[in-house]
Amino acid sequence: MSGPTAEVAGVDGGVVQRALAAEITRVREDRPGRPPHVLDVGGGSGAWAVPLARLGCAVTVVDNSPNALAALQRRAREAGVAELVTAVQGDVDALAEVVPAGGADLVLGHGLLEVVDDAAAAVDALATATAGGGAVSLLVAGRYGAVLTRTLTGKLAEARALLTDPDGRFGPGDALRRRLDAASLRGLLESTGALRVELLQGDGVLDCWVPGAVRDGGPAVAREIAELEHLAAAAAPLLDVAARLHVLARRT
Q: Which of 16, 25, 33, 47 is deepest in the core (most CB within 10 A)?
């Protein structure tokens, strides 16, 4: 793998990175002569931001943790992209106070909807920050993937709770405020009236179930697993059992 996809895949490898790389390519073609502007809300220490900056994107990371932002700046310096990465302390509840409306070509909210108080308000804020024709990328914890994981590990009470709780939580000790399925995620985005879902795929559909003995089979096996995961990500019957759900929605 070479080019933008390979660079973005350095974050975590897989289908999400391919989608982001394709979107960055689209922005460059539509707006030549300037770097794509990416807004990463809740981006922490830059797991997504720094690889995108290495592609030449100007990335603004908004996070409420000063420690995470310090780690982001250190990471950006080490990667030689400090001039392309801007750290802003804040959160999605007051996003309009720290970034301009309609200023970003691509807005990331990865791992965000699981932890915010109001998921619908967060989606509205992300959409408002996105330029017309730009895209919002969300990566969220999947409800049914969590049910399956708990069942296979014998945590049946937690599996039952995850399946029946309105927010997909297993109890008061759950660190997440919600888990989503494909239908609820799509509905949440499209209810704003400002976003149109273009891509809804699974992330971690089959690769997490590959036995360790098989996974240790070397580069050829790793490629085979990656190819299998890429095929499974778009398979509708498998989508809802993914560990995470990824959506790319276009700002209308």
A: 16
